[in-house]
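Submission sheet (multi-component)
Chains listed below:
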Amino acid sequence: MSISTVFEIVLAAVVLGLAIWTTAVRDTYSATVGFVAYGLLVALVWVRLDAVDVALTEAAIGGGLGGVLLLTAAARLRDSGFTAAEAPGTVTKAAALTASVLTAASLAGAVLLLPDAAPTLAPKVIANAWATGMANPVTNVLMAFRSMDTMLEKVVLLLAIIGVWSLAPNDAWGGRPGPRHQADPDGVLVFLARLLPPIGIVVGIYILWTGANHPGGAFQGGAILASMWLLAIMAGLTDTPPVCRRWVRYILIAGPGVFLVVGLGGLWLGAAFLAYPPALAKPLIVGIEVAMTLTVAATLGLLLAGVPERSAR
Amino acid sequence: MNEFLTAAVGLILGTLALGLVSILRGPGEIDRMMATQLIGTGGIAALLLLGTVTSVPAAVDVALTLALLATFASIAFVKKGLSKLDADGTGPTENQ
Amino acid sequence: MSIGSDIITIAAVSAGAFFFLAGTVGLLRFPDTLTRLHALTKADNLGLGLVIAGLLPQADSLREGLKLVSIWLLGLLAGATVSQLIARTARQDEAR
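Outcome: structure written.
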C-alpha cells in the first residue's frame, strides 16, 4: 500500500467523520463550524481528484461565504427563540437519514460500477478547444459548448435575489439589506477591512483572467470580489445600498443581459442562438465573463447581506 | 522527494484530524472557531504540498483563495457573537 | 544545487509539520482559551511559513515563488487579525 493510498484513506476518513459529526451534533453553531471545516477539507479532496476549478469554487464559497451565511442564519435562529417544540420529530429525522444514506449509497454505487475506461467527453472537449482559443476545458464547456446552461444559471441567481428581496417587510421595501454594522474605527477589524479588499480585488480579477487557460473563471472571481465587499460592510466601512437604486439593478442584470444580447446576436447574425463567430469567440467570451463577474459579485454580496431591513430614506 | 512530501501531507492531515477532535470536544464555541482557523491554515499547507506532489500547479491558486477567505467565518462568528441577543458586534466587542 | 534545494525542502517541511503538530497538541491540551490561542498562532505562522519556505526551492518560476510568499503574508495577516478578535471575544466572555 503506497503512501498516497494511505493518505487518501486518511483524508476520506477525516472528511466522512467530520460530516457525520456535523449532522449529528445538536448545537447549531457547532454544526456551522463543522460545516465550514468540512468545506475546507473537501477542497483538498477536489484537488486530489484533479478538479481544480471545483476546488476553487469550494474554497471561495464553502470556506468564506457559506460560513458567513450559515452563521448569520444560526444567529437569527437563536435570536428568534427557536424552541425545541418546533424541532423536527424522530420520524422526520429517521426519514431524512434514510433518504440521505440511500442517495449516498446510490452515488457511491454508480461511481464504483463505472467501467474502467469510464465514458467521457473530455477528449472531445480538448480536441475542440481550437474553436475558442482557450486552453481550460472547463471554461470552454461553460462558456462555449454549454453556454446556454451558464446563462440560465445566472438567471437563477437573479430569481434567488428577487426571492430574498420579496421577504422585506412593508416599511423596508426597497430599503437597505441587513443591519448597519459598526466597528471600532481604530480596531483590528477595520484594519483588516482596509488592507484586505485591495489585495482581494486583484486576486479576484486574476482568477477571472486566468480562467481562460488555467483553472479559474468568472464565478470564482465574482465570489472573491463579493467576499471583499462583504468584509467592508461587516467592518462598517460602507453600507449596503438600497435595493431600489437603479445602478444596483443594472449591475444585477448585466451578466445575463450581456449573455442574452450576445446570444440573440448569434441568432440574428450567425448560425444559432449563442453561436460565436470563430474570429470573435475569445473577445466575446471575455466580455461576457467580465459582466458575469460583476453580476455574481453583486448578487452574492446582496444575498449574504440579507433581507432589506431599513427603509431607503 | 515525492514520497516525503506525500508523507508530510499525511502528517499535516493527521494533525488536522487531531484539531477536529478539538472541534468535537472544544468546551465552548471559541475553541471550535480556533480549530476551524487551524484547519484553514493546515488546509493551505496541505494544498500546497499536494499540488507539488501531484503536479497540479493550479493548487497554488486554490491555496491563495483559501488564504484570502479563511478568516471570514471567524469574523462573522465574532460579529454575530456567541449567545448575545444583539446580533451586531458594535463598539464594545472590539474596543474593550 | 538540486541536492541542496532538496535538503532545504525536507528540513523546512519537516519543521513546519512539527510546528503544526505542536500547535494542535497545544490547542488540545492547554488549560485556558488564551493559551490555546497562543498555540494556534504558532501553528499558523511558523507551520505555514516553514512549509512555504520549504516549497520555495521547488517552485518553477519567480512568479510562483512570489505567489507562495504572498500566501504566507496573507496567512500572517489573517492569523494576526483573527487572533486579536478571538482573544477579545474570549476576554469579554470571561468578564461576564
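Remark: DSSP finds three helices and no strands in chain C.
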